[in-house]
Write a structure and sequence with these properties.
120 residues; mainly alpha; 6 helices
Length: 120
């Protein structure tokens, strides 16, 4: 019983962060919603179905779960966010070691995004 509440709490926290990502630049939305769907699958079928059928969040989650695909628009928003975050880091004059680590991480994220199929 307690574990179901913990799964629900994790799911709601992930939904809240994901929803925040729709208005806060550079905060990703979809990964948090995928975590929420995963947590709700263990804590509340009703809440999982609500998330999967949500008009704004549901299509990307269903696309990932059924096809392991990312909508093209989401990919380009992700790439734009990667570029923006790198430009901000350069503008802030982060130390070279920090920039190097960030570039490595951002290149990995970009490769992941670009190598996923587009959703049908």
């Amino acid at each position: 019983m307690i574990s179901r509440w913990l799964w629900r709490a994790l799911g709601m926290t992930a939904v809240a962060i994901g929803a925040l990502g729709t208005v806060v630049p550079l905060l990703p939305t979809t990964p948090f919603l995928l975590v929420a769907a995963w947590a709700f699958a263990r804590g509340s079928e009703r809440w999982r179905l609500w998330l999967l059928n949500h008009p704004r969040f549901g299509p990307a989650i269903r696309s990932w779960q059924t096809q392991r695909a990312i909508p093209r628009k989401v990919k380009w928003i992700g790439i734009a966010s990667v570029i923006a975050s790198l430009l901000i880091a350069i503008w802030m004059q982060l130390p070279p070691a920090a920039l190097t680590l960030q570039v490595i991480a951002l290149v990995c994220v970009s490769i992941f995004l670009l190598t996923r199929p587009d959703s049908r």
